[in-house]
Write a structure and sequence with these properties.
Helix content is 48%, strand content 18%. The chain has 299 residues and is an alpha+beta fold. It has three domains: 79 residues, no CATH class; 103 residues; 61 residues, no CATH class. The strands form two sheets. Strands 1, 2, 3, 4, 5, 6 and 7 form a seven-stranded mixed β-sheet that branches. It has a three-stranded antiparallel β-sheet with strand order 9-8-10, with helices on both faces.
Length: 299
């Protein structure tokens, strides 16, 4: 998704005014005093000016206070919010329908949903994922980039792509996809324990890698403990279904406690009754029940 034509024009009006103000103060590039001159200057000059501006971000506050471009109050509010910028290296990870996903390179990765200005990111990038250098800006409650983006010519092999995809899934489970930089601290949600547990238990690899985190979470509350048994039961049910059919069992209900089938029956009620006879009642909600359905004969 990209900005509307109206918002594209508004963004460049505001951003060029700010860059010209910064150039007048810092004298980064000679001979650039108007929007037309700025629009026609080289990418290298604009990058140098951009870096100077965000390296001296107090200029944003000074611009808003002085209002040299005679902007409206609403326009000044947009510029003032650019003090919440994010500058640096990101993984341009994936183009989705609503936005592109930018991932931070820090250990505690976060995922940002970013709108394109004109061309979509998958039209600009030679491939994804790719490491890019840019500035992310808040704009009308959404996140855009500043129109300037350079990339590193590093191709990621299958192994790195898999690890990056896992990191993206972990970031989503922890914080969700962040789609606003306004009051960023309040936009980054506290990690959702249920989503984290589901993520940690989704594969054998995750279970092994995050075993200590899993144990910490299930010790925190009975709710987490119950979710653990349900999710781990669901995980093992997938493999049990095939193994039961291999043994000639075509249908029935089965109850799994952690990784072990502890009871069965023709109906769920029969399975629950059988298990309740051998398992303390307070642990019944830990049992994951699944149905093995008889395959339909081809017509």
């Amino acid at each position: 998704m990209r900005l509307s034509n109206e918002d594209v024009a508004l963004f460049y009006k505001l951003y060029f005014s700010l860059l010209l103000f910064a150039n007048a103060r810092l004298r980064v590039v000679a001979g650039i005093d108007t929007e037309a001159q700025l629009a026609n200057t080289s990418i290298d000059d604009r990058l140098a000016l951009r870096e100077a501006l965000f390296g001296n971000s107090e200029l944003i506050t000074e611009f808003v206070a002085e209002n040299p471009a005679q902007l409206s109050r609403d326009e000044l509010d947009i510029v003032a919010n650019w003090r919440n910028f994010l500058r640096g290296r990101f993984y341009l990870f994936r183009q989705l329908k609503k936005h592109a996903i930018f991932l931070t390179l820090q250990d505690d990765m976060k995922a940002y949903g970013v709108l394109a200005i004109a061309d979509l990111f998958d039209q600009m990038a030679p491939f994804m994922p790719i490491v890019v250098h840019t500035v992310l800006l808040p704009f009308k409650g959404q996140i855009i980039y500043d129109g300037l983006m350079t990339s590193e010519s590093i191709y990621f092999g299958p192994g790195i792509k898999r690890r990056l995809n896992e990191s993206y899934n972990e970031a989503k489970a922890k914080y969700g996809i962040i789609t606003s930089l306004d009051n960023l601290a309040s936009k980054i949600k506290e990690p959702d324990e249920a989503e984290l547990l589901k993520y940690y238990l989704r594969s054998a690899k995750n279970q092994e890698e995050y075993w200590s985190e899993i144990q910490q979470l299930i010790r925190k509350s009975e709710k987490n403990r119950t979710l653990y048994f349900q999710e781990i039961g669901k995980y093992f049910a997938k493999s049990y279904a095939g193994r039961l059919r291999d043994l000639g069992i075509e249908s029935g209900w089965f109850g799994i406690l952690e990784s072990v089938i502890i009871g069965s029956g023709k109906t769920r009620k029969e399975a629950e009754t059988a298990i309740s006879g051998i398992l303390p009642g307070k642990k019944m909600h830990h049992v994951y029940f699944f149905q093995l359905k008889a395959k339909r004969s081809p017509r």
